[in-house]
């Protein structure tokens, strides 16, 4: 069993979010300079810890697309109950599902878990232009 499958229900509590990772998430979201109505892709969204900040930035008419390979983490993300969120199960190390056009891409603390993260980065970020299909 994948460690994230068994750890998912406890991830938010045990991950060190408050003392360590929360600040990085907030800064990363601020640096995106999101505006109301935008669509943002959250790669490796996990339990959706970025969703509240992203949702505040894109507002009620914006969209968040969260992609993660762990079904259990996506269950936790769904429990956040935020509107405007679409969740997709996919392994970032493999081909991504067909995604709608997005205005921004964020990935926090997940690329370090992927041995060939350069491939993921190149596949998503290098060809990315705001408002285009990723």
What is the CATH architecture annotation? 3-Layer(aba) Sandwich
Distance between the terminal alpha carbons, to the nearest Å?
31 Å
**H/E element string?**
HHHEHEHEEEHE
What is the mean predicted local confidence, pLDDT? 82
CATH class: Alpha Beta
- Spatial order of strands in the largest sheet: 3-2-1-5
The number of helical segments is 6
The counted number of beta strands is: 6
CATH superfamily (homologous) name: Vaccinia Virus protein VP39
What does the overall shape look like?
A: globular
The structure class reads alpha/beta
Summarize the SSE layout with pairings.
Elements: H1 3-7, H2 11-14, H3 17-32, E1 39-43, H4 51-58, E2 63-68, H5 71-78, E3 85-89, E4 101-102, E5 104-106, H6 117-124, E6 132-133
Parallel strand pairs: 1-2, 1-5, 2-3
Antiparallel strand pairs: 4-6
Could you please describe the fold and organization of this structure?
- Strand 2 (63-68), helix 5 and strand 3 form a beta-alpha-beta unit.
- The chain is built from six helices and six strands, in the order αααβαβαβββαβ.
- The chain is globular.
- The protein starts with a helix and ends with a strand.
- The strands form two sheets. It has a four-stranded parallel sheet with strand order 3-2-1-5, covered by helices on one side. A two-stranded antiparallel sheet has the order 4-6.
- The model has no long low-confidence stretch (mean pLDDT 82).
- Helix content is 37%, strand content 17%.
- It has helices spanning 3-7, 11-14, 17-32, 51-58, 71-78, 117-124, and strands at residues 39-43, 63-68, 85-89, 101-102, 104-106, 132-133.
- It is of the alpha/beta class and 134 residues long.
- It has one domain: Rossmann fold (3-Layer(aba) Sandwich), CATH 3.40.50.150.
């Amino acid at each position: 069993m994948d460690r994230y499958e068994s750890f998912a229900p406890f991830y938010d509590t045990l991950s060190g979010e408050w003392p360590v990772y929360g600040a990085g998430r907030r800064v990363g979201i601020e640096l995106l300079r999101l505006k109301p109505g935008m669509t943002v892709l959250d790669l490796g969204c996990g339990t959706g810890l970025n969703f509240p900040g992203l949702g505040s930035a894109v507002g009620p008419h914006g969209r968040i697309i969260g992609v993660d390979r762990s079904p259990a983490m996506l269950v936790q993300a769904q429990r956040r109950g935020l509107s405007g969120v679409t969740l997709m199960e996919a392994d970032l190390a493999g081909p991504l599902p067909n995604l709608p056009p997005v205005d921004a891409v964020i990935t926090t603390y997940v690329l370090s878990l992927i041995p060939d993260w350069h491939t993921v980065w190149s596949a998503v970020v290098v060809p990315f232009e705001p408002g285009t299909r990723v």
